[in-house]
């Protein structure tokens, strides 16, 4: 279904998008090679007011000594008690599942909700590395075995007290139906982290994130992590496909990133069923759109990430075989000249 072309962008938009896709900021090596600016010399202390009488000089000396003593006390006390890192709730290994209590449910649209679960201790943080997910478990009374489903949390990994999941309910989906039926005060078994793509600052100069539906959650986690790090200069381009305008998840958060980092973050939305007033792309994600907005395959140090329903994966990159097997690259990205090493499937 992704084969038919529906991208009809105006020429100025095409030129601007292509320019954004091909321009790259300074690499990590270039950033490190920049000489540090010399620190300005401290201005000499002003002389005491008045004509230099003995009493004024004494007052000035004692005042300076008091200020110096106060600064010394503060600095030594602060240095003696450095702030301890927050304790992570999810530690992996033999930790097992944590029964986390549901604290709040927020409706997003007709089939998607945000679920906020309390961590075991209020000052704990999720502590998930980027990029990673958590695993949920549920076993009904008549189920022969438990249902397991991974989800990528959407809240900041360093926010204390809770973990938040964005869950779309699918007809007949055992886990999504179970979570949607939970009431505040009930618990859900969650464990983690499930490591995905290991990120480090400036690992790539430019990345493209192609998502459909709730496949935006790992993309958002990755983008947020990049822009929270002042030392990371990676450029990010998002291509996000959905059925309708109401299905665009995390749009407010994506717009905030685009408004805050207009030179480094761009998002392109594609709707299958677009309203008349829609000014974005319509139909499905096409080769023509990807060729226009993504970093070119011949560019140095780029990476393309893909996550979405089976139809999108098949059309864009080919399916992932298993968590440890990315499978062969096919679809639009292969036809556009990207290599298997340049693509990661969540």
Automatic annotation (TrEMBL):
> According to the UniProt record, where is the region Disordered?
22-50
This protein's major location comes to mitochondrion
Membrane topology of the entry: Single-pass membrane protein
Q: Which GO terms describe its molecular function?
A: cytochrome-b5 reductase activity, acting on NADH
**Can you name the source organism?**
Cordyceps fumosorosea (strain ARSEF 2679) (Isaria fumosorosea)
Record bears the keyword Mitochondrion = yes
- The protein depicted here goes by the name NADH-cytochrome b5 reductase
**Start and end residues of each FAD-binding FR-type domain:** 95-200
What InterPro entries does UniProt report for this protein, alphabetically?
A: CBR-like, Cbr1-like_FAD-bd_dom, FAD-bd_FR_type, Flavoprot_Pyr_Nucl_cyt_Rdtase, FNR_nucleotide-bd, OxRdtase_FAD/NAD-bd, Riboflavin_synthase-like_b-brl
Record keywords: FAD, Flavoprotein, Membrane, Mitochondrion, Mitochondrion outer membrane, NAD, Oxidoreductase, Transmembrane, Transmembrane helix
